Prior knowledge:
Number of strands: 3
Number of helices: 2
Radius of gyration: 14 Å
Structural class: alpha+beta
Amino acid sequence: xxxxxxxxxxxxxxxxxxxxxxxxxxxxxxxxxxxxxxxxxxxxxxxxxxxxxxxxxxxxxxxxxxxxxxxxxx
Length: 74
């Protein structure tokens, strides 16, 4: 799991949602890859992923049951 030590607890009053927005970006597409490509490859391998958001941090968790066929370059 990759954790980022920044989250909603770092947002100033009245300007909330940025941490959740950044957390959602890690699931989005790139120039060379559809947004669902990595998720689909993880699912086909029998795995799953999630991105929890807490008051002090947010993270990306990927659990794989076997190798996946997906390039890591963006």
